[in-house]
Design a protein that fits this description.
The chain is an alpha/beta fold. It has 3 domains: about 100 residues, Winged helix-like DNA-binding domain superfamily/Winged helix DNA-binding domain (Arc Repressor Mutant, subunit A, Orthogonal Bundle), CATH 1.10.10.10; about 240 residues, 3-Layer(aba) Sandwich (Aspartate Aminotransferase, domain 2), CATH 3.40.640.10; about 110 residues, Alpha-Beta Complex (Aspartate Aminotransferase, domain 1), CATH 3.90.1150. Helix content is about 40%, strand content about 15%. The protein has 15 helices and 17 strands. It has an 8-stranded mixed beta sheet with strand order 5-12-11-10-9-6-7-8, with helices on both faces. Helix 2 packs across helix 4, helix 6 crosses helix 12 and helix 7 packs across helix 11. The protein is globular. The two termini are about 40 Å apart. Bound molecules: pyridoxal-5'-phosphate. The site of pyridoxal-5'-phosphate (PLP) has 13 residues, from helix 7. Keywords: Aminotransferase, DNA-binding, Pyridoxal phosphate, Transcription, Transcription regulation, Transferase. In the C-terminal section; belongs to the class-I pyridoxal-phosphate-dependent aminotransferase family. GO terms for molecular function: transaminase activity. This is PLP-dependent aminotransferase family protein. InterPro entries: Aminotransferase_I/II_large, HTH_trans_reg/aminotransferase, PyrdxlP-dep_Trfase, PyrdxlP-dep_Trfase_major, Tscrpt_reg_HTH_GntR, WH-like_DNA-bd_sf, WH_DNA-bd_sf.
Length: about 475
């Protein structure tokens, strides 16, 4: 465009980038989208007061909409006080008051909710089985005797521990006795409990790149942490041995975020390292249930239950807001961990436990896992297909599993900073791999951790189209390559 919305103050983003979603909206919604986009941009400060907007003809040509649509939007926003017409030609952005403390732009680049959110971490909360959950709640409450409402065993209700032990043995190959299993508030509390118990025994090694809460939780619990690089097979043993750590937290079924699986040789090496140092491996099995190309690989814990503490939760399979998880610990740590749990909260809420025990024992949890597996497999396929259509040359790496994928964009999408700014301006929320620690790859290509599970196939396609347009792409020949995560 000849005049991309001049930015006299040097602030703001060219208008066409802020409004990239308009052209992809249904024709009858375009006027509203354009007005809302402009209003948002002024409110958030992305279009700074004093900015001259492009002529209506130019903006219309850039957005691929009629000139009348742009003229009407300018008139409407002028009437509302967001824009003003200058003497002679030209439309200018007015200075408007923003609420005290409100930043100019809120990080998604548009001053509002992102249009498309690819940030990883959340399952599809609409898949939460409300009816089955409510029925389990009713049954659990009816069956709970009055004395069952007292303080619970800090390990958890025996019926839930038994149900979970059977489930984890059957589905994940965990070697577990109900007495060794502790019910807790998600993986987060499991790591905090272990962190407190491991205090004073040296730093805990965390994967780099890895899950930021691993580092944060162990640090908050008072153990130091040390980042150890991950290669195409998991934690690098040489670096781990040199780190001074005697404990390490790992995601062997589906490394977060790179998406690789720890192969048998690396599993054996890790266990040998832990045995030699009288150390501990902490296995975070956060999404190990969801594998789309074959049966999930069993838990590392099954190979040596005395060297591996195993943890998981319902945060990916049901909802993170339930704050419900489990921890299986080696015999030597059991007493201390249970006592820490007791001191932390006097036990997990009983009704939640009774309900979940019913939910697991009645087979509803297995049903939910199958339902999620089908939905997430379909969404991953939709993501791969949309990439092929809208970002030809993009490479999807890591195994077909879980709720996110690593996507390496072709060189032409770089540099990363510019690409992310354009995506944010178009309302697409993204997390690059560099947000998760580890060294930036030498090839300089943009690598994204794309969460897809919470988006339907249609939303995935729309978001990818938006992203591709924001990056200045026009659709090319369908082509997507697969490869291993680079070491
Ligand atoms: C690597 C990893 N571990 C664990 C969790 C879940 O933690 P919690 O069970 O405390 O919700 C997540 C959630 O996003 C995660 O990404």
């Amino acid at each position: 465009m000849a005049n991309t919305g001049t930015n006299p103050g040097g602030r703001g983003t060219p208008a066409w980038e802020l409004l990239a979603g308009v052209a992809t909206a249904a024709p009858r919604r375009r006027g509203r989208e354009l007005q809302a986009g402009l209003r948002d941009a002024v409110r958030s400060g992305r279009l700074a007061g004093g900015t001259r907007l492009p002529a209506s003809r130019e903006l219309a040509a850039d957005l691929g909409v009629s000139r009348g649509l742009v003229t009407r939007a300018y008139e409407q926003l002028t009437a509302e006080g967001y824009l003003r017409s200058g003497r002679g030609a030209g439309t200018w952005v007015c200075e408007i008051a923003r609420p005290a403390g409100a930043p100019a732009g809120d990080g998604d680049g548009r001053g509002g909710e992102p249009v498309a959110d690819f940030r990883p971490g959340t399952p599809d909360l609409a898949l939460f089985p409300r009816a089955a959950w409510a029925a389990a709640h009713r049954r659990a409450l009816a069956a709970l005797p009055h004395r069952g409402l007292g303080y619970p065993d800090p390990r958890g209700l025996p019926e839930l521990r038994r149900a979970l032990a059977a489930l984890l043995a059957r589905r994940r190959g965990v070697v577990v006795d109900a007495d060794r299993l502790l019910v807790c508030s998600g993986v987060a509390q499991a790591l905090t409990l272990l962190g407190v118990v491991l205090r004073g025994r040296g730093p805990v090694a965390v994967e780099a790149p890895g899950s930021p809460p691993h580092e944060e939780l162990f640090t908050a619990a008072g153990t130091g942490t040390v980042r150890v690089p991950v290669d195409g097979s998991g934690l690098v043993l040489r670096e781990l041995a040199a780190s001074g750590a005697r404990a390490a937290v790992v995601t062997p079924a589906h490394q977060f975020p790179t998406g690789i699986v720890y192969p048998p040789a690396r599993r054996r090496e890790l266990l040998a390292w832990a045995r030699e140092l009288d150390g501990l491996l902490v296995e975070d099995d956060y999404d190990g249930e969801f594998r789309f190309d074959r049966a999930p690989v069993g838990a590392l814990q099954g190979l040596d239950p005395e060297r591996v503490a195993y943890t998981g939760s319902v945060s990916k399979s049901l909802a993170p807001g339930l704050r419900l998880g489990w921890l299986v610990v080696p015999e030597r740590l059991l007493g201390e961990v249970v006592e820490r749990k007791r001191l932390m909260d006097l036990g997990h809420p009983v009704l939640d436990q009774a309900l979940f025990a019913d939910f697991v024992a009645s087979g509803e949890y297995d049903r939910q896992l199958r339902r999620c597996q089908r939905a997430y497999r379909e969404r991953r396929d939709a993501l791969v297909a949309a990439l092929a259509e809208w970002c030809p040359g993009a490479a999807v790496t890591g195994i077909a599993a879980g709720l996110h994928a690593i996507v390496t964009l072709p060189e032409r999408f770089g540099p990363q900073e510019r690409f992310l700014a354009r995506a944010a301006a178009a309302g697409v929320a993204l997390r690059p791999l560099t947000d998760f620690g580890g060294t930036a790859p030498a090839d300089g290509r943009v690598r994204l951790v794309l969460g897809y599970a919470h988006l339907g196939p249609g939303a995935i396609r729309r978001a990818m189209r938006l992203l591709s347009r924001a990056a200045g792409e026009s659709s090319g020949a369908p082509r997507v390559t697969k490869g291993a995560f680079p070491a």
